[in-house]
Amino acid sequence: MAKNVIIVGTQWGDEGKGKIVDLLTEHVAGVVRFQGGHNAGHTLIIDGEKTVLHLIPSGVLRNGVECVIGNGVVVHLPSLVKEIEGLIANGVNVEGRLKISSASPLILSSHIAIDLARESTNVKIGTTGRGIGPAYEDKVARRGLRMSDLLDKNKFYAKMHTAISFHNFILENYHKKPAINVDEEVDHWLKLSERITPLIIDTPAYLNEMNAQGKNLLFEGAQGTLLDIDHGTYPFVTSSNTTAGAAATGAGLGPTDFGAVLGIVKAYTTRVGSGPFPTELNDSIGKHLAEVGVEFGSTTGRARRCGWFDTIVVGRAILTSGITCLCVTKLDVLDGLETIKICTGYKLDGKVLQHPPLSADDYVNVQPVYEELPGWDEPTVGITDYHSLPEAARNYLERLQEILDVPLDLVSTGPDREQTIIRNHPFN
Ligand code: GDP
Ligand code: IMO
Ligand code: MG
After folding, report:
1. What pTM did the predictor assign?
2. What CA–CA distance (Å, rounded) separates 226 from 79?
3. 14 given a catalytic annotation
4. Residue 286 reports pLDDT greater than 90
5. How far apart are alpha carbons 199 and 68 in whole angstroms?
């Protein structure tokens, strides 16, 4: 029987989703992105060779796997073409396997200019500057352009003109920034569109057909639960739903089409950009995690903030995505620490909370309640057998599993595809 699995990030993104999607593609016919855009940076390392993907699903390095960009993904055409060309230059056959939804909203240069203009003020979200927020705003406001608009050049010209004129009004009059040249933009996009229009299809029909043929599909989430527009640390979030429900709406399948939800969770916590982070470590341990874990953003190169594992954050991910199994990544980064802390609750106004505060604004006021466990000296890097892990590492994982009450089916012990412990395969 076919099985469709959704992969989601359970923290603030960069949990190692790309690595795990790539690993599991051995068992699937297709990988589908369903939300976000080129704000994502998913790193794949195969036999030491690194590839970072932003828009193209992380199934692209496995020959024969179909890669689908769903209607929930916002697409910046120049970035998509650049990513395709980069992969082709490395010998990857992309175009024959890539399909894009006709309903995917377009990110225009003017969306990027507005994103950057907002970020240049004092009120910063710390966005990736990729125009994600403004593009989703236009989608919801029902004035955005979609992939299907590229199919009719004359209509496309008129629609792009209207959209950019509106954006230019905001850029010039509100932000006091230069306007975007509409004609140059349209010319550039029409040239690029020749590469892309053959890839535009009715993705819901296509995916339903694959389903009917009994083919396994993997749904690749971007960002993480606490960046979800509804369930995250609002307003310091991205502009899409990053939780598992978005796989249905962002791909065009029904909720009953999915068989499992695999949450990816780092063995500690990181965050890029502004916003609350209760277990953040501004000390030598935080620095150690950043250095050993090479915690720099895959998209913007910004340093990631680091902290202890937060079970309130991951508990919220389990609850909002119906997570059925977890994969703990970067366990090896904790090697050599004397003790390791787990946040098991938040103190707020003298009370201990087991859930995030009612108002996301209060997130900055919570104090983490910690439990401390012994660390381990022996290296875990590259271990593929659970029982070969040091006892203290197993105790750490088992304590997490006990608190979270979800099986830790996979453990990642290094960035390479092969450096993984599989205790229970999600496609079994
Ligand atoms: P994603 O956005 O969730 O796909 O994650 P990113 O690719 O942005 O960030 C994860 C980083 O950790 C990448 O540099 C990966 O190569 C790396 N990584 C993934 N799993 C492991 C692991 O188990 N150990 C170590 N040391 N690095 C890992
Ligand atoms: P992956 O898929 C980590 C963060 C930004 C910022 C906030 C809003 O690689 O895990 P946006 O540009 O989306 O409007 O920025 O969200 N952010 C991410 N952080 N990983 C990501 O993606 C992210 N995508 C967006 O840093 O705080
Ligand atoms: Mg990333």
Report:
1. 0.97
2. 26
3. yes
4. yes
5. 10
